[in-house]
Every structure is written in structure tokens, then in C-alpha cells.
Amino acid sequence: MMSPSLKMAFPNSAVQLLLSLFLLVHHVSSQRSTYIVHMDKSSMPNPFSSHHFWYSSLLTSSKSTSQTCANADKSEPKLIYTYDHAFHGFSAVLSADEVEALKNSAGFISAYKDSVVTPDTIHSTNFLGLTSASGLWPASNYGKDGACNGGEDFNSSLCNKKIIGARYFNQGGRAENPDREFKDSARDDDGHGTHVASIAAGNIVLFFGAAESDMLAGMDQAVADGVDIISVSISSRAEDLYESPFAIASFGAREKGIMVCTSAGNRGTRGVRTIFKGVPWAVVVASGTVDCWFAGTLTLGNGKTITGWTTFPARANIRNLQLVYNQTSSACDSPVFFTEAPSDSIFICNLNTGNADLGTVMLYQPGTNVLASIVITSTTAEIFRSTSLPEPGVVITPEEGEEVMAPGVLILAAFHPQLMATRIGRNIDLSSDYNLISGTSMACPHVSGIAALLKAAHPDWGPAAIQSAMMTTANPLDSNKQPIKDLEASPLGIGSGHVDPDRALDPGLVYDASVQDLVNLKMEFPNAVFHLLFSLLFLLVHHVSSQRSTYIVHMDKSTMPKAFSSHHFWYSSLLTSSKRSVSEPKLIYTYDHAFHGFSAVLSEDELEALKNSAGFISAYKDGVVMPDTTHSSKFLGLTSASGLWPASSYGKDIIIGIVDSGIWPESPSFSDDGMTEIPARWKGACNGGEGFNASLCNRKIIGARYFNQGIRAEDPDQEFKDSARDDTGHGTHVASIAAGNIVEGVSFFGYAPGTARGVAPRARLAVYKVLFRGATESDLLAGMDQAIADGVDIISVSISSRANNLYESPFAIAGFGAREKGIMLVTSAGNRGTRGIRTIFKGVPWAVVVASGTVDRWFAGTLTLGNGKTITGWTTYPATAILRNVPVVYNQSLTGCTTAELAEAPENTIIVCNTTIGNTNFDIVMEDLSNSNVKAAIIIAEETSIFRFSTFPYPGVVITAAQGQQVADYALASATPTASIDFQQTILGRGPRAAPALSDDSSRGPGRSYEGILKPDLMAPGVLILAAFQPHFPAARIGRNIDLSADYNLLSGTSMACPHISGVLALLKAAHPDWSLAAIQSAMMTTANPLDNTNQPIRAQDGSVASPLGIGSGHVDPNRALDPGLIYDASMQDLVNLVCSMNFTRNQTLTIIRSSYNCTNPSSDLNYPSFVALIRAAEMGRTLTRRFRRRVTNVGNGAATYKVTVEVPVNTTAVVRPQTLVFGKKYETKSYSLTIRYKADIEIQHREGAVIWTDQTGKYRVRSPIMVSAAADNFE
């Protein structure tokens, strides 16, 4: 218990346990500042070829002729940016004189100082005008006789050149409270000392005790150790100087030339003379605000924005929600008002009309339909000193608040990482390495730090001179040049004013004083606290409607009458002729690159009329498409030291067309830093539409278009934005995986921290938005058709269609047209997993179809039981929840964790939930936990889908049944079981599970649209991939209704695997520009790895061994693909021969290959790097023989000899002839045959094997999978 005569001057917050520290000071700098200058460009003189040269000339002309000590290092005005799109002008570093000179220039409009938008570390040093507080007090000046006697848990190795001394003093506290346990350690228990020390950037000796005797001992030792300044953010109630520890110790310190700085205390205006420490020979420091406002922007439906105050500790995603205002309920003084509010609403609370306060609102809001609150109050002083805002909301005042005074209010500095820093909801406590705390405790170390700087700059000055310099140069005005305000600020509140370090460096005159002179002085400083306001966010919704059908029509362009100058006019004429009703047929798109034809809104009668038109081939209804997510590049083996990255110059100048939901161009992943000029061959454009002007394209995003006419025709009553801007984050995510630039320091709420980079970081991106929260095949075709016309090298499509037939599939049709132009289509396998047989719809032989797998990364929560045992579990809870030694509840009657069971659980405990029995749905358990009063959960689960998603809205960890038994044994054996949980941990390498593993939701082959070619082709990383995201779309959730946004997100699916292959293909195309697309695909497939990182066959996430129907040839290995040894090549005619063998009608065939080819030599034996032998229903019970012919080309250096090994499928024989291939030179081609004999047995539906060619040196291993598989007609 603390001595009644001593009290720490912590901030007056009901939420903070023990807060602390410091003061900040306003700085009117004498050096140059950055200004933003607006110009009238029409005034630019003709001799200047660009605005840039004009502005540079103006700066040269404005150059100051005088230099001062402050600006001597910046003698030249410095141009920072020129602006020519949002407005005309520039930004530059200028002196006040130079700004005045610019005002006389022709074309000058206005200029104003630049301001900081995002505070960095403790913005208070910027507010003081300081650029580097640390390091100005060298280790050699800190004293010569100190010691690092830190005691328990604080050995001398923890001291360093920054912390050069540490001691503890608790004997007075021990004597005062002999029954209380005191730890003999200088380690901080409450964060207060850590906070003040980091503010001062070098307070040397931290001695905090519980009794005045301890304080005196600490200060006495500090004087003995030879410190230069003693900083004490602690208060005592002693009123008489001869009893005050501050007065006594400070006088002794002053005699030795040591300055003492101390906090004024946090008693505010509660009575007169609230400063107890009226010590004449100490610097007593008041607390003020900084020009740093913690804002939330409230945007009303009418477009009006209001800047309010909020410190809600997460990026809640609140967009376009219903606003609820009722004069009766706006008092918000009853929980009923919240529970009866409409779902997903924002509630307005006017605290001026009732008895509620902010704490009441935050208590009633959790678990209701209210997603956020707008709190109106005139009583803001306490609110703006505290960071406690556990629910989404914004505080606004009837009047505008004023920005004022010296830094001591909400100062960011280091904190104890195992103490609560803030809270979300009722019971989720969060920790932080840095914390925002208010109080004179925070003001004091600011002045201590400034005194240290002045002492270093003026070593011959005494403490009185340094104090005088700070006081006489202090600023009594705020940032608006008005007197600093409290309710009515006077020197009794602010003393001489807000400290100004730079002016104190050269004060002109100083008031010096001896120790005797100081005896007759006395000053008083109450603390000043203040105000400002913040705000909130928004979200979007949409609706659906329908009407007449949209059809995609294929035409034979060679039959177009010569009277028509273009296919567009021909198709329009056909539609006019087909009209059969009052309403007009509506042309949506015309296609001329991926295939020939158009899409239109038609009645069935009009469609029948079209079928009689010359040139008609086929028509089918437009279908719905849907989206099928960066350590992954390291997992692929890509490195800057060697291999495919340097060989390809990181994919330089390869253009990847992303056909998806658009892009968020402001993401750092799409910066064009390091990119060269756009290739001259590019024919595309930046037509981004609404909210996406051409300036948002750059050397990374070189094109942007959108296509929504199909979905508009399908749903005419729904509103669609004409924009290539991403609404959902899907397109942004896949684009950054394929070719995102290098961005350091990203993570998903602390998980997967590191550097984000695309697979081909120097490739270009062209964006084609076809997903608008709904999409059609006609839009998809239009996007792919335009990508071909624009001249992309690769089309990457992470979207699925339900079309079963190749002649109706947009992927097959557009993919074939793309292949003709030397453009490869890469597409996702789909996310239908093992739900039935043949869940891949896209069995397109001329596209690369990609499956999804895991990476060697585990998002961990470390569970530490009270007996010391640690268990590594799984969690992605998106915050630093603090759970230390919390009681554990293990009760078999409660382990189902249903709503009823959780209601019986004790509050503030960690409950054990077992989802292997009873309530087996993880999402439902999370929802029930979010409505409970327990602090966290230990969840026993075996459901592997948990590890595919980042959704983890309540604090907890997932562990296995075996680990759960360890927890149960401990909990039952202990009378008071406890546990701690640490979050935001990422484990790389061989973690709890082998990798890669085939994702359970990755679609399986054979492909529905064609089963004669093995699909998927390859597997790539697709589970919880970190990549760029749309920052206004929910990325995570806390509790039941707090959605969080993020710039980078973890997503899973074949959508995320697909762009990995697109990126690898871009690298290979850049490294081997002379290779065909078939050769590049072959290189990836024959070098793919069928083994995981334990050198065992890849398994599915459920533990079963994965077959080629799930992983294709295996997991892509980019560096091996760079030099594959042999490749399987194929021409366009080979693909035509394949289509001609498919027993389609003539028109169905022409839908794919058009009229440019003939079918004189049909063949289903495509020269493909995999083998499929089908078992058809009519063949059951027979012994079947399948023969394949293959050609392989030597792409190794020079002559080579290869020998074959066959991994034979079960109940099968497989023979390769010849068994040796001898190549005399590079690029020579050899042929071989594979004959497979097998019993057609439905009991063994799928059998796998492989043909492996190995060269005599052992360098190359060219592998092609074999799949003996039951055909589709067995399951019809």
C-alpha cells in the first residue's frame, strides 16, 4: 500500500492502471519550412517547356540572400513536388523571405505551410521543433560513478550505452508496509517509468518507490552517481519545504549543479493552489496538448464531413450505415435504447440531455445492433485526455474545440508490454509496446530532455541560466497565434508559456541566480488539459434485380457482307433485323480478338431469328461468374542471389492482364518505384472511369478498364459504378501477388510480418474489371477480348464459370483466341473442393489451371499453462489482447460453448471449448463467445477449414485433441488453474504441419469440360496469402459487429494460387523470350515437385495423400523451371486437331477455333506433359490398352542422354519405348511412346503413376504424371 504522504501524479483516467508522463513544447522554427504553393499555370511564360522548369526558375529567383545559423545547412530553396493534375503548383522548402519573394511572382495564387498527416513515434518532438532528441546526450556525459544494480530480472547486461545505470529503492516502502511484497528490481511493473524515460530520450536513473524516504534515497543516489538532470514525475502531499522530499533533495542537487525537473501534478482546478511542489529551485512543469488530433471522419449521407475525436484502437470498417437519431433515446442512459435500435446502425447519443456519460455509452453498446455511436457532449476535457474508447464511435462537441498548449496530453511513448494499454468491448484488454498517456508526468520528461540538450550545447551554463533560457523564450501563444487557453489560462496554469527549445538555445539574456537567491523565489503551475474532436467511417450495400436474357452470340466473320465497314455495324444490323417486339434488342459488347461475335439482350424469338442469319455459329445464355490470395515467393525458392529472379530481371516489361474486380491503385504495392518506361508495344489505355483518373496509372499499372454492360443488362435496377476501382479487394489482392512492387513492413494485424512483393515485381499490370459484386460471362469475355487487343503477354483470371461445354466456356473461347496471339491464359481451378466428383469446371487444354496449396507458415498463439507448460496453437485474433495468468475453466458440461453454457461460465476466465463434440461449428462458437463474459477460449478442434481463414473474432487459440488432453489434465489436477496466451506470432519453416498441403477447398479433376487432359496442371501457394487489399472493405472482425479494415489481407483460395503461376510464367517468358507458351507451361509442369518439405508425397489438409487430380504435376518450382532439360512443345494446329477430335458439331467447333483452321487431321493425343487413361462405363470389366506418342525437345546446353523410369499405377502395366533418348545438340527433338494396359475396375477409380526422364549427369529430372481415371459417364 502506498504511503499516505506520497502520491504518483498519474493521469486521472478510470481506465488506465498507472499511466505517466511528459511535456511537449511548441516550436516556432527559425529555419526553413515546407510550403505548398498554388500557381496559375496560364501565366507560365512561353520559353518554359514545362511547369517543372518554370517552378524551378521561380525558386532560384526567390533564393534568400541572408543565412542564419538555423538555415545555413539549407542555403538553397528545395523543390519537393510539382503538381499538375489535382491542381497547379508545387511544394518546396522555403524561408519566410523566400515565400514573400514568391508572392510577387506572376501566377502566384497562395501558399501555406505543409502539415503532418500521420504522426510518427511521439509527434511531441516534432511539435517542439526537435528532429532528434536521442543521441545528443553522449554516454560519457552521464556521470562517472553510477552502477547497473537492477536486481531481480534485471542483470547488468540489460544496461547499455543508453541505460547506463539502474538501481531500486524500496526499503522505506517495506518499512511502511511490512506485510506487502516488494520485488527487489529496477524493472518497471506499471509502465510509468518506461514511458517517461522514453520521452526524455535518456533519463538515466529510474528510482521509484512507495515512500518519501525511498524517493529521497533515489534522488540522493542519483546526485552521487553524477547525473546531470533528475527527472521526477511523482507527487508528494508535503506542503512545507522542510518536509518536502523534492525541496530537500533538489536543493542538494542544485548545489552540485544538477537540474531537477518535476511534474506539477494532476489535481487540475480542484480548488485553489493545487500544486504541492512549489519548490523554487526545481523546474515545475505543467501539461498541455500537442497539435496532434486523434480523429475519425464522420461522413453523412449528404456528403457533409465532420471531424470528431476517437481513440478506438482498431480500423473499424463502417460504411453507409443507417443513422438513428431520436430525441427521447438520444440521452443514451438506458441499455434498452441500444437493444431496440435497428440492425447495423449508428446511434446518436447527446450526453447534454441526460445522465449518461461516455463510459455509460461504451458499456451499453457491446453486443447490440448498434455498430457505432456518435457522441455529442460539451464535457470533453476528461475524454480528450484518455485513450479509453472500447467501442467504435466518435465524439463531437456542440462548439468547435480549440487546439492548445504544451505536450502532456496523450503522448505516445514506450510502455510495459504486459500491461493493459486499452480495451475493446467489455472484456478484451489489449497490450502495446507504446502507449498514449496524459498527465504532467508526461510533460516533465519533455523539459528534462530539453534541459539535457541545452546543457550539452552550453556546458558552461548553470541550472539557473538553463531554466531562465527555457522560461524567457517560452511561447504564451497557441498555434493560432492566440493566447493559450484553459478555461482561462494564466501564468498560474502555464507559467511562462509553452517551452520552445530552439529559441532557448539562444535566449539573448538569462536570469542567473545563486543557491542563496533561489531561497526567496516561489512559483506555482497547475496542469492544463484539453480538447479536440474525432470521427468514424462508412460501408456499402447493394441489391439485385433481373430482366430479359443476355446471350453471347458467335459469328463467322468471314461471311460479313462487304457493305459493312466493321463487324460492329454488321452485328447492329442483324439485331435490328431480328426485332420481334416493341422493345429493341440491345447490343452489349462486340468481340473481335478472343473470338468473333457479340453479346446482346434478346428475346427467344429474336434469338431464333438470328439463327437464320448468314454467319451465325452459336449462341448461349450469359452465365454468372464468381471469384475463385508474402512469404510465398520465398516458399517458391525465389531469391535475388541466383535463379529465376535475376535471370528474368524480375519479370521486367512482361505485361500481365488481371481480369478481376479491379484494383486499388493507391496501394504501395502498385508504386512504380524502380520501374522503367512503359514498353512501346503497349496499345492499352487508362480508362478507369469514376474515381479512377488517368493519373492513377503509372509505370506499374499501365492500363485500367471496366466492363459492366452485361451485368447491367442482367440486373437493370441495380446500380453499378462505372469504375475500374476495386470494391471488394479481390482484384487488388491477386494483382499484387502476381506483380506487386516491393513494400517493407507489412502484416495482417501483426501476423505474417515482413516484406510484400509480387512473384514478378518488375512486371507490368493491366487491369480489366469485370466483377461488380456480381458478374456475367459477357463482361468476362469483353475484358479478356480487350486484354488481347491491348497487347498483354499473360491473362490471369481468378474467376469461375459453371459452363460445362468448351464451346460455351468463356475461358475456352477467349483462351484459344489469346493462345493464337501468343498470350497464355492462367486461371484458377475453383474452390469446390471434394464436393462430388470432377469439381473443376475449367478443363481447358490450352490454359494453365492452378490448384491451391498451403505454405510453410503457421499463425500461432502460445498457450502457457500455470504449471509452465507451453502449447503452440493456431490463432489470427487481430489484436494484442492481454491475457496473463487468467483462471481456466474446464468443465465437460460447458465445453460445447453454446450460448447457454457460456452464460454459466464465470466472468473473466479462459474457457475450454471442444468442437470435436457437441457444437462443432467453429464460426458459431466464435459468435457465442463474442456475446459472453469470458475473456478468451482454448478451442479443441480437428476441422482443417479453420486453417484456411483469418476470421478469429474473439481471443483464443485452436489446439488439437491431444494438446487439449494436456490442458484438461492440468486443469483437473490444479486447484486454481491459470493460463496466459500470446498472440500475433508467426512460425516459418517446418511447423506443426508439413507443407505444401493441398487445400481442402481446391477443386479436383478430371475437368468437366474436357477430361482427356489432366487438370489441374499445377499447384501453387493459395492458403492465407498476404497481399494488398482494399482498405475500405472488412478484412477482419472483433466481437460480433466490429469490422476492421487493412491495407494488406490474408486470403485463401485458388484465386490466390492462380496469380502465383501468372507471375512465374512472366518470369520464364522474360528469361526465355524465344520459348513458346507450350514450352513454358511444360517447363513448369515437368519440374514441379510432388513432395512436401518432409520429402513425403504431398497430402491434402485432411491428411489423405493427394493425387494428380488435386495437385496436377505437383507444386511449382520456379528455379528448376528456368532450366528444365526437356520440354514438350505444341503448335496451334496441334490444339486445333485436339478440338476437331472432340465430336462437336461444326458450329460448336467453329465457336472455339473460328474459320481460320480446318479439321483434316483430328487427334486427341496432344503433345502434353501429362497422361490420362480413361475408364468409360461401357468398358467395365475389360482389359484396356491406351497408347500415347510424345515429342520432347532438348533445351539443355549441348548433347545429352536421358533414361526413363516409370512409376507404374496399381493393377496396371506401363511400357515406354525407347527407354533411352540420345540428343546430339541443343533444341533437337526426339519421340517416345507410352503404352498402358489396365483392368477397367470401378473399385479402383483413380490410379496414379509417372514417366520420369533423367539425364546421365543427374542434373535434370523431367517428370510427367500418369492418371488412370474413371470417366464421367460412370457417375451420370
Descriptive labels:
alpha/beta; 7-stranded mixed β-sheet; single chain; 31 helices; 7-stranded parallel β-sheet; disordered N terminus; 1276 residues; 54 strands; signal
Describe the structure.
By secondary structure, this protein is α/β, with parallel strands linked by helices. The chain contains 31 helices and 54 strands. The strands form 16 sheets. The protein has a seven-stranded parallel sheet, with helices on both faces. A seven-stranded mixed sheet has the order 35-34-40-36-37-38-39, covered by helices on one side. The relative contact order is 0.08.
Note the overall shape: globular
Task: Report the helical percentage.
Answer: 10-25%
User: Based on the structure, what is the oligomeric state of the protein chains?
Assistant: single chain
Distance between the termini: 80 Å
Coarse structural class: alpha/beta
**Order of strands across the biggest sheet?**
26-29-25-30-32-33-41
Mean pLDDT: 80
Major β-sheet annotation: 7 strands, parallel
Strand content: 15-25%
- Contiguous helical run count: 31
**Unreliable parts:** 1-30, 65-74, 116-123, 131-145, 201-210, 400-406, 521-547
| Rg calculated over all Cα atoms | 36 Å
Q: How many β-strands, per DSSP? A: 54
Keywords: Glycoprotein, Hydrolase, Protease, Secreted, Serine protease, Signal
GO molecular function, one term: serine-type endopeptidase activity
Main location: secreted
Subcellular location: Secreted
